[in-house]
Amino acid sequence: MKYENIKSLVLTILVLTSLILTWNLWTYQPDFDYLDKRDSTISEVAINEKQEIGQLIQPSKLLYHFDGVHHGTEELGDLNLFMEELRRWSLFDIQVATSYSEEDFFSFMHGSGKMEVVFPTTIPLQTFRYITGFSDNEIPPSISINRILIDFSGETVGSEPIIYLVHYDDQKVYQARVRNLSTNELSRTFYQTAKILPTFIYEEVDKNQYVFFPEQSPKVRTGYYYAKQLNPEDFKNALFSNPSIVTRDQVTDGIVYRDDSSLMSVSRPSNNLHYVNPGNTGLGNSLDFNVIERGIEFVNEHSGWTGQPERFKLDNWTSSTIEHNVVYRMFIGDYPIYYFAEKGVADISQSWRNNEIYEYVRPVFEFLSWKSIATNIPSGRDVKRELDNFNDLRNIQDIRVGYELRRESDVYIIEPIWVYKENNAWNKLNFTASDDLEGGI
Predict the structure, then answer these.
(1) Helix, strand, or coil here: 429?
(2) Residues 297, 120, 54: CA angle, nearest 5 degrees
């Protein structure tokens, strides 16, 4: 073959190769489905469990009033039974009720024939759609309540009975008609059997503001638990937008993770996690921001709720021009758990700014059952006497029995105590040594 023919053949091959490569470049499309799946696999971290919003919002107590005698319950089984009833209802025709004078408000709320459903904090009525039904398309967005009142003392007017939605602190009362509610059946199931429940007494903490708590010493137990540790790496993968660039430093009392905008520390002594996003420099949140719902969704995004024996319930939320804060408290059985030295050990606490998470503090352990022993604590009458030593009761919002959490080596101990809520913060009620305590210590 002549040299010119060979050169022409090589040139032709090169041209064809170039055309093929050009065609492949023009027509190439990456497998975005694969990339999407790969990215979502990285971000979807399942640490433990998800929870429905309705599972985390529950009453803290049920109160029943009989001619100056009051009964009540804080037991989980009783609260769950009422929640099953509430989920069947369908509320409609919500409107402002007749206003009550300060003198009439006590008898309206706590008079004979009344049943009170007390929630641990104010809850936007919009959020109640997760725990009960609404027939009206529009739920009034500006209404928040912390009690439901059911009146068994009068006759039902019309085919659908009326219940009352109450913001107790502000003495604001709304009424709503209810479908799928028989007051006769509700009375038989709850009110008429309530006299076998513990007697509750009350303290007037402010004008027409009353806090109810059990009169006798409840039957309680001190619990001893081992704990299973949650993996901090799972939280790193869940909370940082690009886990591959996160640095990990071992420090004296734990581990610190950081990237260019966020920091997460895991404390070995407290066994809790503290995530902060200082890169979120915004202040405030949008007017329609619902920190209760968004906070639950946030934990669900990494399946961050731990299971039995502990569980979490909405405890409190606050808002300011700077941020929204929400707390979901740990419970075992009927009682909440408190760790007073710092937050995030017996609760999940969040702060939100600019509709984004700013701070997230939580435990990184879950309990494993071990054993418990019967324990005596002071009675409600002892509590009432101790309150006489307080200079000012006006900011007290609740009084109840809970557990104080402490740790001895690898063992977690939950010990029954009385606690009171003042200015949205829980405190241990300490009894003076001179008290003649009926229930003992």
Answers:
(1) coil
(2) 35
Q: pTM value? A: 0.88
For domain 200-227+365-441, the question of CATH label 3.30.2350.10 is answered with no
Instruction: Answer whether 203's CB lies under 8 Å from 387's CB.
Output: yes
How many other β-carbons are positioned within 10 Å of the β-carbon of residue 171?
Answer: 16
Reference 48, options 229, 307, 273; nearest CA is 307
Residues 70-115 have pLDDT tens digits of: 999 999 999 999 999 999 999 999 999 988 887 789 999 999 999 9
Beta strands in 133-195 (DSSP E): 133-134, 144-151, 162-167, 172-179
Residues 6+ apart with CB under 8 A from 91: 132, 133, 134, 135, 136, 163, 176, 177, 178
Q: What is the DSSP letter of 246?
A: -
Residue-range domain boundaries for the chain? 53-197, 200-227+365-441, 231-363
Tokens of 403: 């557990």
As assigned by CATH, the class of the 231-363 domain is: alpha beta
**56: Cβ contacts below 8 Å, ≥ 6 apart:** 296, 312, 313, 314, 328
Angle, CA 57 vertex, CA 51 and CA 63 arms, to 5°: 145
Give the pLDDT confidence of 185-200 residue by residue, as tens digits: 999 999 999 999 999 9
